[in-house]
TrEMBL record, chain A:
Its main location: membrane. It comes from Mesorhizobium qingshengii. This is Hydrogenase-4 component E. Keywords: Cell membrane, Membrane, Transmembrane, Transmembrane helix. It is found in: Cell membrane. It is a multi-pass membrane protein. GO terms for cellular component: plasma membrane. The keyword Cell membrane applies. The chain crosses the membrane at residues 6-25, 32-53, 59-82, 94-118, 130-147, 154-171, 177-198.
From TrEMBL, chain B:
It holds the Pfam family Proton_antipo_M. It comes from Mesorhizobium qingshengii. GO terms for biological process: ATP synthesis coupled electron transport. The chain crosses the membrane at residues 6-26, 33-52, 72-92, 104-123, 129-148, 160-182, 242-262, 274-296, 316-338, 374-400, 412-433, 453-475. Residues 124-421 form the NADH:quinone oxidoreductase/Mrp antiporter transmembrane domain. This is Hydrogenase-4 component F. One of its GO terms (cellular component) is plasma membrane. It is a multi-pass membrane protein.
Length: 220, 483
């Protein structure tokens, strides 16, 4: 593998981690969704680059799904939902930005140390992709636990799925069945979430998951 | 002959799909409930026919072997009895207006899609396909848990969805790592995800990568098994969804995730340099057992109580498989089957009790054996069985787990027995009030279907007294396969 192709793949995957970090400190819903759209665009570029260097044409489909569905359709849809629900104000973050960023740095370090150590025998590009992918997954989890708003939890979950797609495309020759299934499951997941958001809206006039927290089943 | 057997596999997958399509289009709920029962019965027959026909050669996607037949038949059987129970349960829900006819259309279609997902997870020979199937089954149950659309149901479904998705995402990452480990040995492409190919070559895989993969898979699928500390979704989902769904969640869906863990455990066992998976599973199993046993004491909601009991029993099962060896594996398999049958019977009973009394609050349900003898005694028998008293099948399997632990690691037996006794105490404590206390609440006669619950309980006690030798031989064979 020549240096340039490797560097570009590295740049794109690293960029994805960087965008994940950007999500951590967005305190407005619209901004968060815009950053997610950027995340999806970088993912699409990264997958397309993998498709090009691996000469695996089916990966272009995955890239197109990421671009059209995750970078355009979902952000536009979420914008609409937010407007309709009238919640385009601040996000209530459960944890402050400083500690969140520190936790994020810790998680990325952890995944680098872990993945680079155990994959010493694997192809260098796949190794780095896996390490980046695990970082993105963990950062996605972090977004989910530090937010209390249902929409931002959903965004966190989708960024986590982006990390999975990066891992799947980095694994050379992974069968198409998995990529389609990942894209497909995101679609289903989104429908599920959409349904839930509307139901939650219907019942409580709020999508703040914290508002649901009073119920623990033991206070009847 | 092979073609016929392939048809049996196709049947257990196609019948639910076709039924789901029909049910989605059928507005009449009585007819739909009947069709749901019929489709489940057909699936059960197709599953049973797997025993007698020759098995197809394992392909790139599908596989039938001695291990998964047990799971498939159990799945189809409980799926069938639950559909019978569901028919009488939903009639009451419709009368009281908790569900509407259009809800039911959705509910029935989802029920069959869930059965499809679970069956697909069992017969898949491809770890990617298995993941897709588990995810499908999860999503359908999420939708059904939220079907009442009450405050509590939505919170439960949301929590289940978020935790379940995170679990499933970790499992996918683990799956990708397994592929990465296999790819240099098996070569690129679909073959590196085919389980039978993987296990044949597992000895040459990079052990470090496999280890990390297993940790992710155990955490991911373990979330779905309901292992502590990843169990938070389970009590809510059981308590707030329709009771037939609680029955299939406890009786079947937990098994699906467990099956996935077992498959990967076998994979690691085939690689001599990989870590021993036993200690990890033993730790998680014991933690779940002891934690759930303590939590049982504080429950005030009857469905939540039995949901925690499911966590406890999954803990015992995972512990048994973690111990490994022919005896402990045998005990784990038996316990899994017995737990599925007993717990779904208990949920059938509890579902009708909650309908009759109009509440799930334990303090408001009293003296059932006087007001509703058939339901009350079914609950007594069910709790006696689930608490592990002789002569139930659970007594036998728990006895086997404990005795094999004493023989090999006496120190581990202490927390194990402690947890089992603790849970035993909690369940009997709750049972006395509910079954024998001063009658309280509605005494209206119950319109219940007793056949599913009593047939399950009869099977559990029959197994405790006499296990047919062919079944024992089969389980022993599978236990050796599990290593």
């Amino acid at each position: 593998m020549n240096g340039l192709t490797f560097d570009i793949a590295h740049l794109l995957a690293g960029g994805l981690v960087l965008v994940s970090f950007m999500m951590l400190y967005q305190d407005r819903l619209f901004a968060l969704i815009n950053v997610f759209a950027v995340h999806a665009i970088v993912l699409a570029l990264s997958v397309a680059w993998q498709a090009y260097i691996q000469d695996a044409h089916h990966l272009y489909v995955t890239a197109a799904i990421a671009l059209i569905f995750k970078a355009i359709v979902i952000p536009v849809g979420l914008h609409r939902i937010i407007q309709r629900l009238g919640i385009h104000r601040d996000i209530e973050t459960a944890v402050g930005i400083g500690p969140t960023m520190l936790a994020g740095i810790g998680l990325v370090t952890l995944s680098m140390v872990l993945m680079l150590r155990v994959t010493s025998g694997a192809d260098p590009l796949a190794r780095e992709d896996l390490a980046f992918a695990l970082s993105i997954i963990l950062l996605g989890l972090l977004v989910m636990v530090t937010r209390r708003n249902a929409v931002s939890q959903v965004v966190g979950f989708m960024s986590l799925e982006n990390g999975l797609v990066l891992a799947a495309t980095g694994a050379k020759g992974m069968p198409l069945v998995v990529e389609i299934s990942v894209a497909f499951s995101i679609l289903i997941a989104f429908i599920v979430i959409g349904v839930f958001l509307f139901r939650i809206r219907e019942r409580f006039d709020s999508v703040d998951v914290g508002a649901l927290d009073d119920y623990r089943g033991e206070h009847r | 002959m092979t073609a016929f057997s392939l048809d049996a596999v196709a049947a257990i997958l196609l019948i639910p799909v076709v039924a789901a399509a029909l049910l989605a289009a059928l507005p009449n709920y009585r007819l739909a409930a009947g069709l749901n029962v019929a489709a489940s019965l057909l699936t059960l027959l197709a599953a049973l026919s797997l025993f007698v026909t020759d098995r197809p050669q394992p392909g790139q996607y599908l596989l039938v072997d001695d291990l998964n037949i047990v799971f498939i038949v159990l799945n189809a059987f409980v799926g069938f009895t639950t559909s019978v129970f569901s028919a009488s349960y939903i009639a009451h829900e419709l009368d009281t207006g908790r569900l509407t006819a259009s809800n039911l259309r959705f509910y029935h279609a989802m029920y069959q899609i869930m059965m499809f997902g679970m069956n697909l997870a069992f017969v898949s020979n491809n770890i990617g396909l298995m993941w897709v199937a588990v995810e499908l089954a999860t999503l359908t149950t999420v939708l059904m848990v939220g079907i009442y659309r009450t405050h509590e149901a939505l919170e439960a479904a949301w929590k289940y969805f978020i935790l379940g998705s995170v679990g499933i995402a970790l499992a996918l990452f683990g799956t990708i790592l397994v592929y990465m480990a296999a790819q240099p040995v098996v070569g690129e492409g679909t073959n590196a995800m085919v389980w039978t190919v993987l296990i044949a070559h597992a000895a040459h895989f990079d052990p470090a990568l496999l280890n990390v993969a297993f940790v992710f898979l155990l955490l991911g699928y373990g979330t779905k098994v309901g292992l502590a500390p990843l169990h938070a979704w389970l009590p809510d989902a059981h308590a707030e969804g329709p009771t037939p769904i609680s029955a299939v969640l406890s009786g079947l869906l937990l098994n699906v995730a467990l099956y996935a863990v077992l498959r990967f455990k076998m994979l690691l066992a085939a690689s001599p340099e990989a870590i021993a998976t036993g200690p990890l599973m033993i730790t998680m199993g014991l933690t779940s057992l002891v934690f759930a046993a303590f939590m049982l004491y504080r429950r005030r909601d009857i469905k939540r109580l039995f949901a925690y009991s499911s966590i406890e029993h999954m803990g015992i099962i995972v512990f048994a498989f973690g111990m490994g060896g022919p005896l402990a594996n045998f005990a784990g398999l038996l316990h899994m089957v017995m737990h599925s049958l007993t717990k779904s019977a208990i949920f059938f009973t509890v579902g009708h009790i909650a309908q009759v009394k109009g509440t799930q609050n334990i303090t408001e349900i009293r003296g059932l054996t006087e007001t509703h003898p058939a339901l009350g005694w079914a609950l007594v028998i069910g709790v006696v069985a689930i608490a592990g008293l002789p002569p139930s099948g659970i007594f036998m399997s728990e006895f086997l787990v404990v005795s094999s632990t004493f023989a090999r690691h006496p120190f581990l037996a202490v927390p194990l027995v402690f947890g089992i006794l603790l849970a035993f105490g909690a369940l009997l404590l709750r049972l006395t009030g509910v079954a024998f206390g001063e009658p309280r609440g509605s005494t209206a006669p119950a319109e219940a279907s007793y056949i599913p619950m009593y047939s399950h309980l009869a099977l559990v006690f029959a197994a405790g007294i006499y296990l047919p030798p062919p079944l024992v031989a089969w389980f022993q064979h599978v236990a050796i396969l599990l290593g």
